[in-house]
Amino acid sequence: MSSFSASLNSAAQANDRLKTIQGQVHPMTQQYDHPLDPLSATEISVASTLIKAKHLGKRFQFRYVTLVEPPKKQLTAYLDEELAGKTPSQKPDRIVEALYSVFDNETGWSYKCYEGIVNLTTSQVVREQPLPEGAAEPLSFRTMATAQAILVESREFKDAVAKLNLPENIVIEIDPWMYGVDQPKAGPSRLSFLCYARHPSNNHPDGNIYSIPLPIIPLMDLQTMEVLSIEPAASGGTQDGFTYGTHPEKAIDHCIANEYVPELQPRGLRKDLKPLQVVQPEGASFTIKGRLVEWQKWRFRVGWNYREGAVIHDVTYDGRRVFHRLSLSDMTVPYGDPRTPYHRKQAFDLGDLGAGLSANNLALGCDCLGLIHYFPGALTTHTGEGEVKGNAVCLHEQDMGIGWKHTNYRTDRAVLTRNRMLVVQQILTVANYEYIFAWQFDQAGAIHFETRATGILSTCLIDPGKVSEWGNVVSPGVLAQYHQHIFCLRIDPAIDGWQNSVVQEEAVSLPISAERNPFGNAFVTEKQVIKTSSYADAAPHKNRVFKIINPSKFNPHSKNPVSYKLVPHTGQLLLADPGSVAAARARFAQHHIWVTKHRDEDLWCAGKYTNQAFREDGGVQDMIERNENVENDDILVWHTFGMTHIPRVEDFPVMPVEIHQVSLKPADFFDRNPAIDVPASSQLANKSVLYDEFNASKSGSCCS
Amino acid sequence: MSSFSASLNSAAQANDRLKTIQGQVHPMTQQYDHPLDPLSATEISVASTLIKAKHLGKRFQFRYVTLVEPPKKQLTAYLDEELAGKTPSQKPDRIVEALYSVFDNETGWSYKCYEGIVNLTTSQVVREQPLPEGAAEPLSFRTMATAQAILVESREFKDAVAKLNLPENIVIEIDPWMYGVDQPKAGPSRLSFLCYARHPSNNHPDGNIYSIPLPIIPLMDLQTMEVLSIEPAASGGTQDGFTYGTHPEKAIDHCIANEYVPELQPRGLRKDLKPLQVVQPEGASFTIKGRLVEWQKWRFRVGWNYREGAVIHDVTYDGRRVFHRLSLSDMTVPYGDPRTPYHRKQAFDLGDLGAGLSANNLALGCDCLGLIHYFPGALTTHTGEGEVKGNAVCLHEQDMGIGWKHTNYRTDRAVLTRNRMLVVQQILTVANYEYIFAWQFDQAGAIHFETRATGILSTCLIDPGKVSEWGNVVSPGVLAQYHQHIFCLRIDPAIDGWQNSVVQEEAVSLPISAERNPFGNAFVTEKQVIKTSSYADAAPHKNRVFKIINPSKFNPHSKNPVSYKLVPHTGQLLLADPGSVAAARARFAQHHIWVTKHRDEDLWCAGKYTNQAFREDGGVQDMIERNENVENDDILVWHTFGMTHIPRVEDFPVMPVEIHQVSLKPADFFDRNPAIDVPASSQLANKSVLYDEFNASKSGSCCS
């Protein structure tokens, strides 16, 4: 298996590389432009070189090298000076964290994982420590590819496949999958594999393998690269209970080629969809300087790292601070099928792997229309080199329909503005599935976070003609198990300053009474300040919203504290039994809103090390249990939301986007609609065309 | 006041007009093209002429002439033949309903209102009857203008205004408003008026009068056109309780000009928004034949009437029936301020007035981008003539981002389609406020109904420096009272046929148990068929959805009945006390979902006559109380949804769109994603542009 032998870079090679780079370290690393700029490829390479120098002669595998953003106190001092138009008096040291395995021997798989902290400004490895007891390192593409290559060559795997009586020459494809633990101390380094095949009728490299699931799930020990077991995977129906179904003699003969690539469509493609183009003849309304974006009074920075992908930093509107940092912190995708080994299907796509790692390299003309800017993102190769994904994040403007309109019926004059938005988008591919995440800024001061779930369902085999209570049969022989997608946003607010509070507000009926409500139509709002770190839930039937306020600044008209309002998404929370390991691992998924006191290290709603964790360690539940003040303080607001996915047949072979959106809207932050100065929509600028006139002009029947 | 004297068309004029038209009646009315085509202007004129002929010598005021769609049995027979490609064997008679006042005398205001039914096919007035006991006719623009003109000339009004010490030469503007009753038998024909003024500093005809509210609310009796009272309107703050506040000597001097028209912006307009155009070089993907629309396997008809505005009829996808009729049935906007007379602010914008009546005449290049088709809508003048609003409804395609995507990480090949939608849109102006309603059809078989609330808040005066528990102060002296917008969709389903059922489905955890859920991750769906007419509520925490199924047709893969799924909007329901008149009038607003057995006359969730009704008469509550079978039957599904509007300062002077959406999605209706045959997105068709390249080409730095 030559494809993965390159990971075994010799100590000698490492030393050579080190010598080349060391001379450049000092001058180069001083050159970073802004403390929030993501690491460059060179910075990554330098950091790994410094680490390697501490273990001369050892074999390495790098998992990541990532920026440690400056401590908030230091950073806000810098940003305050910057916003005031001054040259910041002190540039913070450039600190990075690396995660890497050091192999025990020159050959073999046994390794120990370390966290290293490197100060690039001083060219020093500041700290190095093994992972905390019980923690497992996140998955890496390298390890997964290596393990898979060893698996497919193994006797155990070949024997198991032989028993399936697959058609001759069938091509098996495998998705390595996180091993979702089911009990404490399951062992920190395991990997499971979901197995599929190309349909023999086309054997197409882009065939939809998820329509041909194989009823086996191999498990491997990553410290030994040995096959632990080839677990049989149930293919029975509801009538079979927890037995494994009656695998037919030919396991997959009832599966069909249910393809998504255009050239494999049996009924061809639609021919009546005409092009629709977005044209911006005078260019974009945004400007980009490095990672700094300015657009329609907004100003923010687009950060990036291997774990969160795009991060939005230091957001101001018209010179006023709004949010310090916005990011998707993590997510969990637990499956509801209790039949072993399916019960272990629970992914934490950011913590177990990484949104930056999984980000698509976007293509012009496919993912967005109009004038597009791409931000690159640097990642770390297994050998520790920096490597750039050129189109990791895209930025563009969208027309989102009408922004505001009023027609004065007295004069019949309509004034209308369109709703232009600026979109920062990234798309993740996590094996079968795609997530499209977009931060959208509008002209009325609101920020929206949109998720689009698409891609291919994670499927398993079901015997011919059966149905199952654990999922829906979406194609012959294909069971799409019920599952959930539960996201958690981390919101570091800066509503007109660094000291904020959260107010829970509801609309409440008053009972009929002569004094307060004689006719019974009255209702009021009830507000409750969250004083100590705690959670809360969405309650749409009460119109419950959460206002992030600055308790020291007031709106001149309403006299309310200035605020941004979070209208929580109301999706169902985690369904796993509270006593389950699945629930212990994802306590963040059990309430919609969490308010905690800011700490620099509190980045991860489900804890830092999610892979194979048997509990959420250092996540939001632990944070609130510190019982800290969150009133008029430096706080964090976390919003958990998502969907329970009961798959439809229409979600296969690739599912139409399922869209969810969360909004942060100014509520008495401004003294009027901040979009009131957007120029009115006009035919002069928009150049719309009448359908009848277009047709007439094409048919030559007009003005000829 | 000459502007309203034209309403007093003499009997002689009516007779002349009748003679002219009668000769044309028979040949013309046979010519209607399709039973679902809206009435033409000529049909309206003919119908009113036939009615006038029954009351020769009488003065008339027409409120509406509207199509009575053929009885469903007759209509479905026609549509079934049509769908089968046959010439329908029987064309239903063309029936219209008219509502009109016949004045008691040649002069004076006293009148009686009638419902008339006219058969245009036979040129006969089939029936004529007075309005039901206690019912009031809906508002008409004519009556409102007449009443207002009389009001402003009245001594009572002039005296009341004089007491306000308004600046000299100030221009008062008045919005006639429905009189929301507060007790049974309040009298069937009253009108109230909300009074405002232009700001004296600009006296602009398009000034935002809602920033200068006057603290009086006149009431008139429409049978006598006499001023009943000029009610003082509270301008106090929370500290004033139910007293009326301390009107300052100069009532409105603390109000400012808070304007929305571009030329009145004190800080100017933004200058950095570049044009963004939608270009469809090969034309539209839809075709239009009369009111028939075909696009991307969808086929439906766009109906229209004065009350609902656009109605979607006879929807099929790829030749299969999906929905028979889709419409917004009605809405209510109750206000939560208990201070008399504000407690009577409760609008039913469709039943009290009419969405078609209030529809904007849309303008090319303002309301939509790209290639636009407009549908006209015919209305009835007060004299009974048909009058056409040319651009009442618009239809166009929109790009709504990514439709589906999958990247095969093995080959790095991404296949992506964009999410093109077809949008049928209308925009209502109801005095201060705007509603944008859009039916959106997507390529994956889903239909969405989107509401955008915009326009100007209905405001009242508040004394300087005060705040109120009944609303938010959005501009100096301007209180925007808390209120709700509660809509109700009427869904007449035809899921693969005429006999359907509704299934309520939830995702439900299982407790940990060795037999069924050993690891605690399991969950299942629970389904419950609604058997007799009843209501249900949204329950997002249970992932509750409502599937409209055809219990006789099954998906070949899942074996489930074919269905469309309604994911209910979870907005807060009516806040008015259940014992209030406000609640009795809007029982539809107290539950999210209503399932009733179809009857032809069941069109109105809040009853036919909402204006001044003191209870919802013949609405959904009455329908469910018939206790009829709704399983495997001809059924109606009603969906109530909306928002509690706690106004923000940012919602003034014109509010940014507040968007809500309800979706009807196929769920095991198709045998796969119906959008899988959409051609992949490509740069060839989309012609996107790189930001950097655009800038380089403009600056001449590239390839020069």
UniProtKB/TrEMBL annotation, chains A, B:
Task: Tell me if Cytoplasm is a UniProt keyword of this record.
Answer: no
Which UniProt keywords are listed? Copper, Disulfide bond, Metal-binding, Oxidoreductase, TPQ
What this protein needs as a cofactor is: Cu cation
Supply the enzyme class, top level: oxidoreductase
The Gene Ontology terms for molecular function here are: copper ion binding; primary methylamine oxidase activity; quinone binding
| 2',4',5'-topaquinone, modified sites | Y433
Which ranges carry the Copper amine oxidase catalytic domain?
276-676
Q: Where is the Copper amine oxidase N2-terminal domain?
A: 34-130
Q: Which Gene3D superfamilies match?
A: 3.10.450.40, Copper amine oxidase, catalytic domain (2.70.98.20)
For this protein, what does the record note about how its cofactor is bound?
Contains 1 topaquinone per subunit.
Coiled-coil boundaries: none
Which Pfam family is an annotated match for this chain, by its short name? Cu_amine_oxidN2
In the record, biological process GO terms are: amine metabolic process
Reproduce the UniProt comment on modification after translation.
Topaquinone (TPQ) is generated by copper-dependent autoxidation of a specific tyrosyl residue.
Q: Where is the active site?
A: D349 (proton acceptor), Y433 (schiff-base intermediate with substrate)
Family the entry assigns: Belongs to the copper/topaquinone oxidase family.
Q: How does it assemble?
A: Homodimer.
The protein's name? Amine oxidase
- Source organism of the structure: Orbilia blumenaviensis
Give the lineage: Eukaryota, Fungi, Dikarya, Ascomycota, Pezizomycotina
